[in-house]
Amino acid sequence: MTFEGLGIDARLIQATDELGYVNPTAIQEQAIPVLLSGTKDFIGLAQTGTGKTAAFGIPLLQLIDAAAKYPQALVVCPTRELCLQIVKEIELFKKYLPSISVVAVYGGASIGLQIRDLKRGTQIVVATPGRLIDLIERKAINLEQISYVVLDEADEMLNMGFKEDIEFILQNTPKRESTWLFSATMPPEIRKVSKRYMKDPVEVTVGKVNMANKSIDHQYYVTTAHHRYETLKRIIDFNPGIYGIIFTRTKLDAQEISERLTREGYDIDALHGDLTQAQRDKVMGQFRDKSLQLLIATDVAARGIDVQGITHVINYELPDDVEVYTHRSGRTGRAGNQGISIAIVHSKEMFKLKQIERINNSKFNKLDIPSGKDVCRKQFFHFMDKLLSADISHGDYETYVPMLAEKFADVSKEEVLKRVAAMEFDRFLKYYENSEDLNVRERDRSDRGKNDFNKKGSRNDAYGAGKNEFRSKGGGGYSRLFVNLGTKDGFYKSSFLQFILDMSDLKKEVLGRIDMKDMNSWIEIDKGAAKQMIRSLDGKNYKGRRIRMNDAETGGGRKPRRGEE
Ligand code: AMP
């Protein structure tokens, strides 16, 4: 098939010839004749890179009235980059149609200049939704005579939270005769929009079409409300190369978490409704050029923001609305990249995950909140990779090598590496030295129903007793250890168990009965493992307090008072 065979005007063919287009692409072949024939509504399911700009751009140029100097065609697309790209291509196609003008209007640039461009008289306007609505509200654009509306990358626009904006635009084009919708995927939301605003559209599909965005891995972590912030930190620290957006439900949360994380040394800023446009632009600018690694935002404040290369979206709390979750997660996994959308949930929110899975036809993967050790290991490997891939081609290092060699003459390579690592990791090692397990496990939940460890005077059974786990083995080969840590230190039995096992590198099989009190606990342990446990914990710090652990029978540890056991 040739371009001539599609019914295209000679002047447009000449331009495509000069661009080196020999044959039309599949979407062009299927769309162009249909659109030129006067078909009113059209749906083209095609990915980026299939030549869809020409598929709608060429028919638009041919169909509009070049002599009339008012906007007749409106192309709406999700991002500023795409907006500029579409205009650039249309400019090339219209090389031999000089009386046609095309103008780009998009956010983040001077609205004054764009208004001036529009005033000059243009037939085709290519716009991002937010800026277009701004122009409509200022009455700076006349949509009265728009006959053609093209929605390009409609799924992306919906993912970015532009659904209402698009509907508003469609409702504000009273003379709209044709609506052409292009999308890489066909989620139910797009179907709804097409049903509502289009009449018997001709539908054309090129390549495979996904129902949902499969390039996003949906993950969740279960913790307590109390540990939400710590969990967030763990997730960030566990992903050293993260470039992400954190979503909160409230402005106050966004502000507070941002301030707290900044104080703790993270590259983060908040985007919320109280910022002036200038402040907002500044934050967005920094995030876009990656001088900010993390952005924390409320849903309203994040509307329409479009940044390439987001690796993670974190739901600090899940939204009530499934659609909002879809918009949030749609910020990642774009343009063919893989992305991760994380939800921090507590056990009572599981139903929300199920609801999202059902409606979006997606699946959440449950992950364990990484332990302090996991985080440190991950940071360590990341750093080593960074070290090995550091660019040393530019500095004048050779000049200093003899001096370095002399200075390090007596220091082994291992020691240098250790020292470099120590410099980089001090913060993590110190912070995670005695970190606790933040996961809420099935066991914790059923345990808590039976015992409220935080309530004074409540009766504390041995860990898991009644379920035949860690039940006292009756003395035998057991030692009984005392430790000055208890529920007041924020431990539940399972997190305490995890903590002492992590610290000592022992297996849980060596443990017998564990009795926890507010300030102290007693641990039954295989006689052979007792020493290792004491050695690993005694004298260490936990949250700034020195841990004291010894043999309760011989080592002077306070024995439980009567009634405490
Ligand atoms: P698009 O999907 O519109 O972003 O187009 C992807 C790329 O393919 C652009 O760089 C176009 O210039 C190019 N292109 C579009 N149509 C053709 C064609 N028929 N032959 C060769 N290249 C094309």
From TrEMBL:
Biological process according to GO: response to cold
Record keyword Hydrolase present: yes
InterPro entries with a match to the protein in the record: DbpA/CsdA_RNA-bd_dom, DEAD/DEAH_box_helicase_dom, DEAD/DEAH_RhlB, DEAD_box_RNA_helicases, Helicase_ATP-bd, Helicase_C-like, Nucleotide-bd_a/b_plait_sf, P-loop_NTPase
Xref: SUPFAM superfamilies: P-loop containing nucleoside triphosphate hydrolases
Leading EC class: hydrolase
Record domain DEAD-box RNA helicase Q: where: 1-29
Keyword terms: ATP-binding, Helicase, Hydrolase, Nucleotide-binding
Superkingdom of the organism of origin: Bacteria
Domain Helicase C-terminal: from-to ranges: 231-375
EC number of this enzyme: 3.6.4.13
Motif (Q motif): 1-29
GO cellular component, one term: cytosol
Name by which UniProt lists this protein: RNA helicase
Taxonomic source organism: Sediminibacterium ginsengisoli
